[in-house]
Specification:
heterodimer; A: mainly alpha; MetI-like fold; two-stranded antiparallel ribbon; 14 helices; disordered N terminus; B: mainly alpha; disordered C terminus
């Protein structure tokens, strides 16, 4: 693969730059000098661990007989392991609810901020973005306080209406409790990206649409949203990759929601438990890889459904 | 609220009132956790658990006493965590940014052999779940004796493919090839052309990538949680997580720890909030121009 692309590139470049052989050599050299340092880090901390994880996942450590090569046994085990399957099903369901909620909040807010500029909207933009600056762990700790029965405000607030406070740590509501935490954490960041994309649109287009009789809503729906589709797709793909790896928030809230969030709540938590609590690195690696497979399938399915594979990451 | 009343008189803004109310609700929602933390870090343990309004101050407001307890608890370990987080964020952020700027510029401005292949491999890496790398990296590092050292947290943070992607697009769009050629014709070497001509043009994106990678390092939890066992090396995220685990496990005996966790959360977010407000204009410029269109 490398050789092939190199050869074809070389050939086209050679025909166009026949006279500048020395300059071409220098260009190759300089290019690699600039990219090289990152390339070394990339090989050492991405390619090597990935290859090593794949290697590890093909072995099993037994009490008797030591480590043995088992090919895909770990994967067969993972995809029939109820802990892995229920975790994977949870993150998929969670993505289907949490991502649309976050993007809708972000999109609505960005459209408003793009259309209306007052001091208050500028102030709101900053405040809504603020949670992005907060580590996810601290965000989860903060919401843990707010959900808490012993010192959270929910009891007081619902008490005003004579209602019992919802317990977001119960198995019925933990899903929504977590949707709320990630929406709070990420909606502002997505809002800023969408807002930046909206600001990049040429205002002359709105003028043209207005001449054709389009109102505010039509301009938003028919002109603005189609033009920022690449930014929306980028956000969707990154949030999908991030959400399927869900770890920090449930890991932190686990202490408070004892019994509701088990150690196998998400695939990543399960891999962590296998590797670092049970020292079962082979199976932990296999789960990480299986999760990587789930991420790949979901992202690919998403890109296929939207039929926008080409416009993404040109 | 002053901004609202000051602009409300102007023609054309009054009909935006529903929109402004909607935004007002959102602002309240996004600020509630901060407000809760600001209010409750003023309280002592009895104030915290004594019932009363959890969204308002009690009679005794004791920020200084709580701060003193926070920074002296367990031999001043909290201060160490903050310093560790700062070190990891600066080293990881600056290192990742330097690598990303060089690589992004190299990809954008040199047509070298293997460029297209290397670039598509890097784009593919954006899809790799970052956490899948933690387990094998841990085993590799433990073979090298690097686990439970600062390097086990800093070195993997140097990897930021998204930063390279951003820098590539920015360098491609904001640094015209003609300017570089002109510099070369004038006799500037490649390095000088990069440092004196291209780099100043790329500055907004550099600030963006620097902030994004520093924040990513500061926020990192899974990697240090896996790598570090010595609590004197913890970043503040892992440290507070551990405290929270202890406090939840023995709910009755650790009421004073809860007030430390609350104030600790507040103190730990202040540096980031200051950084974001200070560099607001810079990083937004980088994001909007940085190809996220």
């Amino acid at each position: 693969m490398t050789l092939l692309t190199e050869k074809t590139e070389q050939r086209t470049e050679d025909t166009t730059h026949k006279a500048h052989g020395k300059a071409r050599l220098r260009e190759h050299l300089m290019g690699w000098l600039f990219v090289g340092p990152f390339g070394i880090v990339f090989l050492a901390f991405l390619i090597a661990p990935l290859a090593y994880a794949l290697y590890l996942s093909l072995f099993q450590k037994k009490l008797i007989g030591g480590t043995s090569f088992v090919l895909l046994d770990n994967y067969a085990k993972a995809f029939t392991d109820p802990s892995f399957l229920s975790g994977a099903w949870f993150v998929i369901r969670f993505s289907l609810v949490a991502i649309p909620v976050q993007i809708l909040v972000a999109l609505a807010t960005a459209l408003i901020l793009d259309a209306v500029t007052t001091l208050f909207t500028r102030f709101s933009r900053l405040m809504i973005f603020l949670p992005y600056a907060i580590p996810t762990v601290i965000g989860a700790v903060m919401w843990g306080f707010l959900y808490s029965k012993s010192f959270g405000p929910l009891t007081d607030v619902f008490g005003l209406f004579g209602a019992a406070a919802p317990d977001f740590f119960s198995s019925d509501l933990i899903f929504y409790g977590l949707v709320n935490v990630v929406t709070w954490q990420w909606a502002g960041y997505y809002m800023i990206i969408i807002y930046a994309a909206l600001q990049g649109i040429d205002p002359a287009l709105y003028e043209a649409a207005r001449m054709d009789g389009a109102g505010r809503w039509q301009i938003a729906l028919r002109v603005k949203i189609p033009l920022i589709t690449p930014a929306l797709l980028l956000i969707l793909v990154f949030s999908l990759i991030g959400t399927l790896q869900f770890f920090n928030e449930p890991q932190i809230l686990r202490y408070l929601a004892a019994g509701t969030i088990g150690p196998d709540f998400t695939p990543n938590m399960y891999a962590y438990q296998q590797a670092f609590k049970l020292a079962n690195f082979n199976y932990g690696s296999a789960i990480s890889f299986a999760l990587g497979g789930v991420v790949f399938v979901c992202v690919y399915a998403f890109l296929f459904l939207t039929r926008k594979r080409r416009s993404f990451l040109r | 609220m002053t901004p609202l009343s000051r602009t409300a008189g102007r023609p054309g803004t009054r009909r935006h009132l529903p929109v402004q109310i909607f935004l007002g609700f959102l602002v309240v929602y996004f600020l509630v956790p901060f407000w809760w933390v600001v209010v409750n870090s003023s309280k002592d343990a009895p104030g915290l658990f004594g019932g009363g309004n959890t969204l308002w101050f009690t009679g005794s407001i004791d920020y200084f006493g709580n701060l003193e307890r926070l920074f002296t608890h367990d031999g001043g370990i909290y201060g160490r965590w903050i310093l560790n987080s700062t070190l990891y964020a600066l080293a990881g952020g600056i290192g990742a940014t330097v690598l990303a700027v060089l690589a992004g510029y190299g990809f954008a401005r040199y047509r070298f052999a293997g460029r297209r292949f290397a670039f598509s491999v890097m784009l593919g890496a954006l899809m790799v779940p970052a956490t899948a790398l933690v387990i094998p990296t841990f085993i590799m590092f433990s073979g090298l004796g690097l686990t439970n050292t600062i390097w086990s947290v800093i070195l993997p943070s140097l990897l930021n493919p998204f930063g390279v992607y951003l820098m590539h697009i920015y360098a491609r769009d904001a640094v015209p090839g003609e300017i570089l050629d002109a510099a070369r014709v004038d006799g500037a070497g490649e390095l000088r052309t990069f440092l004196q001509v291209a780099f100043p043009l790329m500055r907004p994106a550099v600030v963006t990538v620097l902030l994004l990678s520093a924040v990513a390092s500061w926020n990192n939890y899974f990697l240090p949680l896996a790598m570090l066992s010595d609590n004197r090396l913890f970043p503040v995220t892992v440290g507070l997580g551990v405290w929270q685990g202890i406090a939840s496990a023995n709910n009755s005996g650790s009421t004073s720890l809860w007030s430390l966790i609350i104030l600790g959360s507040l103190v730990s977010v202040i540096p980031l909030i200051i950084a974001f407000f200070t560099f607001q204009r810079h990083w937004r410029g980088g994001l909007s121009a940085g190809g996220l269109r």
